[in-house]
Amino acid sequence: MTRLPLSRYRVLELAHLIAGPVCGMYLADMGADVIKIEQPSGGDASRAVYEQLPGGESPVFVTVNRNKRSVALDLSRPEGRRVFARLVGRADVIIEAYRGGVAERLGIDYGRLAPINPRLVYCSLSAFGPSGPWRDKPGLDMLVQAMGGLMAISGEPEGGPVLCGAPVVDTIGALLAALGIVTALLHRESTGEGQRVDASLLDGALLAHAARLSVFLVTGQDPGRHGSAHPYIVPFQAFAARDGWVYVAVWIDKLWEPFCAAIERPALATDPRFATRDSRLANRKELIGILEGVFCEQTVQEWMARLEAHNVLCAPVNRYADLLDDPQVRASGMIVEQEHPRAGHIRTLNTPVRFQKTPGGIRGPAPALGEHTDGVLREAGVEAAEIARLRGLKVIA
């Protein structure tokens, strides 16, 4: 059997909802032994705050917590922290995604844990980073989208700010944290040193719109809101077809003439109002009005065939239901089938990175709350009598 890339490493995950668990999910998909530390009274909030599958399972929880083990341990109790310290001694990585100051109040911050295990890689994944006036504020994806500038440039020109329909900032932060962890482990391989790693959703949000923000930092010109359109290139947006929407990207001048041929409007190619990128940008409103009247005449698939025949970049604007039948999405292998012991047969998302020789993937279901508590504690050398005592005190479950 092929050994997975991260199978040597044990990770303790102190996180709930999306960002921290997605970081742990990626490491677990790649073979790491990810132990999810959950509060005995309820566990990860995503177990309950989203829609429920048969068996009472949350589709979000079962997706982002597969391949993990669950230990129900009360870290607010001194007995729980003593048990946790034993787990830290055998761990390689901690993912901590509490709001600022919580880890310090619990006594499980890097400064307290590093002496127990100097080789420990301690990743703190926060909303706003480890310093600054917002350090201790609780943060969610949409709050970071707002204060990080993403929401201000999203939406229709005459409308208000718009939230991205999926929590992309959570996911970017999760993958940055995973990258930081793997980088720190590489450093440890050569030096033996552990270290603290910090990743934040805010930093990820700023990086996410570098292509727009970088222009502003040089010119001082705010791109504003343009709906589905590009602020600097026209036509580069979604158009309503007869039965849906198609996205068109005429991103360089040499595609303008082929585009005009594809839509059977050859005169537009030499019209001085539209012949160059700068002229199309200057006359955006007039050009878009013309194109909207053209695109509504045909179906999405008819436009796709015409545009692709002229090598114009285009894509259907898929709804979620369309994704299941899209041949490229199917070829990606990202939507897969899984058997879950409580939820039954479900469709879920695969791991997003492929390796030729050591492919990761789904090996096991998301755990029940505290499902692996006894086994993990026994691995840490905790005797059966002590496990029973802790359970009687409700420190573990």
| Overall average pLDDT | 94
Work out the count of structural domains.
2
The general outline is elongated
Count of runs of 4 or more consecutive helical residues: 18
Coarse structural class: alpha/beta
Q: Give the C-alpha Rg.
A: 25 Å
Biggest sheet: strand arrangement: 3-2-1-4-5-6
CATH architecture type of the largest domain: 3-Layer(aba) Sandwich
CATH topology of the largest domain: Rossmann fold
Q: Tell me the distance between the termini.
A: 34 Å
Helix content: 25-40%
CATH superfamily of the largest domain: Crotonobetainyl-coa:carnitine coa-transferase, domain 1
Main sheet makeup: 6 strands, parallel
Please provide a written account of the structure.
There is one protein chain. The chain is α/β, with parallel strands linked by helices and 397 residues long. It has 2 domains: 10-208 and 330-392, Rossmann fold (3-Layer(aba) Sandwich), CATH 3.40.50; 236-240 and 245-316, formyl-coa transferase, domain 3, CATH 3.30.1540.10. It is 38% helix and 15% strand. Strands 3-2-1-4-5-6 form a 6-stranded parallel β-sheet, with helices on both faces. A hairpin with a 4-residue loop joins strand 7 (236-240) and strand 8 (245-249). Helix 1 (19-29) packs across helix 7 (168-191) and helix 7 crosses helix 8. The longest helix is centred in the middle third of the chain and has 24 residues, at 168-191. The chain is elongated and about 85 Å long. The two termini are 34 Å apart.
Q: What secondary-structure arrangement, pairings included, does this model have?
A:
Layout: E1 10-14, H1 19-29, E2 33-38, H2 59-64, E3 68-72, H3 78-89, E4 93-96, H4 102-106, H5 110-113, E5 121-126, H6 141-147, H7 168-191, E6 195-200, H8 201-208, H9 210-219, E7 236-240, E8 245-249, H10 256-262, H11 267-270, H12 277-282, H13 284-295, H14 300-309, E9 313-316, H15 320-323, H16 327-332, E10 335-340, E11 344-349, H17 373-379, H18 384-392
Parallel strand pairs: 1-2, 1-4, 2-3, 4-5, 5-6
Antiparallel strand pairs: 7-8, 8-9, 10-11
Helix pairs in contact: 1-7, 7-8
